[in-house]
Design brief:
Elements: H1 7-30, H2 37-50, E1 54-55, E2 67-71, E3 74-76, E4 90-99, E5 102-111, H3 117-134, H4 143-156, E6 160-161, E7 167-169, E8 176-180, E9 197-200, E10 203-205, E11 211-213, E12 221-223, E13 229-231, E14 234-237, E15 244-245
Antiparallel strand pairs: 1-4, 2-4, 3-12, 4-5, 6-10, 7-8, 7-9, 9-14, 10-13, 11-12, 14-15
Helix pairs in contact: 1-2, 3-4
Amino acid sequence: MISVKSKTDIEAMRAAGRIAAEVLERMRDMAKAGVSTLEMDAEAVRIIHSYGAKASFKGYKGFPAATCMSIDDVVVHGFPSARALREGEILSVDVGVFYGGFHADAARTFAIGTVSAEKQKLIEVTEQCFFEGIRFARAGQRLGDISAAVQKHAEKYGFSVVRAMTGHGIGRKLHEDPSIPNYGEAGTGVFLKSGYALAIEPMINLGGSTVTTDKRDGWTCRTSDGKAAAHYENTVIVTEAAAEILTL
Ligand code: MG
């Protein structure tokens, strides 16, 4: 069942969203060669706790950190590590914030120094995919309209869409209905209503769409062909007009 958020719910989600946005801005500043993702995670925790908020991911189904730190071929769910970032890598940072009874969830992909032209394009197109999708995140549109717009934009550039993982509804729980695939047919799926809260999150691969989850840690999700992947996510509220983005 998809929950409709009240005005008070949305106000609480805005507050959680602002914290997530602040964390990601700080992560953007820190994402440089020589810095470790463990240092970045500690800073994210510091910011989140400074508001009396909680990191949504920490302990979620046993996830060990506040942020997912996913480098190059890691699509999502990478663990922060002590290894320093290197020039030419791309880093996806995903963070969830729980505040006032609600979650906000957002992700960005950063270039570490100068990266290859294809990685740079992948980052840009993945972000654009989100904005293509959100054009259809309004009351009266259908879920498949968002999915199809994301897929169409990614494939226009020869990139592929991860199918094994999807965006999701969000609110009192981190993951709520509906599941939001980044591929699909326009004109299909549930009709969107004002007050739906959605985490729309294109996960786009430079090469093939297949991904593999690390059997040892049960989390780290990599592209099967070892090519780079990017991730971009915001928590949004569906309205009669343009969706409200809570995590920018
Ligand atoms: Mg998410």
